[in-house]
């Protein structure tokens, strides 16, 4: 079994993560069968240390090998450790491509073939929408507004309680002008949240009102939060997740000549705040789109027939930390295009994957200022793209600190184990 484990891609061959652990033989040794150590001889911590760097597909296969491996890989501690490693090393990153009611997944590192995903919602011969992604969970919905949190890697999902729209009759608003969603992770409460913004417009007075509701996975319920006093610029545009907050492009008034700006919704304190723009974009009537690159908020400024500038905010909410990552002229480098959006950095950080006209993907070299076309087997000819981690994260809420009282000695044992694994994780990085 040890020989089979170490033959798997991505698993180290000689590892002793902590001097306090008993020494183990080099896995490349070839002892006779009667002296070959069994998997049970490995300490729990050492086996965890070996496996948490493995790809998700490998771990899913290993779950069926034995009950001890199943118990280990399904444990909350291991799932958290694997997720932290994936985020810190930009591993297990996938690109989700959506065409009408079809969803496809392709590895960001290889970008070689698109695998079709069997999503859990009825599509009613219509389209499926991806509302967002966080830690390997996708939030998807259909035309009937059924909504599900779904982990395509482990093929588990949870359908959310249906939520009707409450029209704010007391405001005299009768027209639903926009509906937007945002999905993200609240790290302070270990909770996954979906935000729904419904806006109502009075066409005569140009006034507006909004209804904002948040679904909490831990509470398994929708609740109403403070109203958003801004107008959404783009219909059905999802909120962008970055730095623990969701972001939308908005204006302060329901008027065509208003300057665009960005508003954020903090997933922990559940408050709306304005996000400062680069100084050169503050008073310009330029079309902007908010996105995320790596761990940072990004803004794409589209100067129509001239060029597209991409800005990145190095330090969240610090206006002076904005810097221009690159600028692409409309007729140069990429070729003629109508729409361009940065999607993700390459693993080296030297290239940016761009979506062009929702029809093709290209790598943009930040140093050479050149592009390289991406050819993916099975890629749809027209698509929307979303970045998603492949992870083991469950779609059921974490109940740590809730419910029945646990045995104190067991809790202490788990804490010591988590502390050990955290130290090992830091050593790896």
From TrEMBL:
<dbReference type="Pfam" id="PF07734">
    <property type="entry name" value="FBA_1"/>
</dbReference>
<dbReference type="Pfam" id="PF00646">
    <property type="entry name" value="F-box"/>
</dbReference>
<dbReference type="InterPro" id="IPR001810">
    <property type="entry name" value="F-box_dom"/>
</dbReference>
<dbReference type="InterPro" id="IPR050796">
    <property type="entry name" value="SCF_F-box_component"/>
</dbReference>
<dbReference type="InterPro" id="IPR036047">
    <property type="entry name" value="F-box-like_dom_sf"/>
</dbReference>
<dbReference type="InterPro" id="IPR017451">
    <property type="entry name" value="F-box-assoc_interact_dom"/>
</dbReference>
<protein>
    <recommendedName>
        <fullName>F-box domain-containing protein</fullName>
    </recommendedName>
</protein>
<dbReference type="InterPro" id="IPR006527">
    <property type="entry name" value="F-box-assoc_dom_typ1"/>
</dbReference>
<feature type="domain" description="F-box">
    <location>
        <begin position="36"/>
        <end position="81"/>
    </location>
</feature>
